Amino acid sequence: MSDHKKISIVCFSGDFDKIVAAYTIATGAAATNREVTMFFTFWGLNALKKQQGHSWLGKDFLSRMFNFLMGGRKSLPLSRLNFAGISPMLMTGMMKKNNVATLPELIEAADALGIRIYACEMAMQILGVTKDDLVDSVQEVVGVATFLNESEDAHIIFI
Fold this sequence. Notes:
By secondary structure, the chain is of the alpha/beta class. It has helices at 16-31, 61-70, 87-97, 103-112, 121-127, 144-150; strands at 6-11, 35-40, 116-120, 140-142, 155-158. The protein is globular.
């Protein structure tokens, strides 16, 4: 068993507040000298798309429709009280007003802290998303077995 503390976060929700929570935990853990891995799958992949709004990614009709409807980082809904998409903007304003790191700032901090970002190969295949569709901070596209091997002896959190 490793002496270094490890945490792995599975991001399977595409909700704004849940992605913010995942990055808050990840950056806090990395700042306290933990080794951190984030694994984005299904709806969580929206936070990693280069196209930040709605776009027609995918190879076939269904994958293009799913990707368009899900959008990207700027289209992440709040899990409760989304109010037709305005709530993430309101929440970001509240975060700034209270000197709390916003999602773009948390993502930048994750990069600076060396947090490993993985994208789920299976979910990408189903949704017709390629590595070229994702931001450069994605180190690898991996399957579950690789993620689990990388997360050995880690605390795994699902968000």
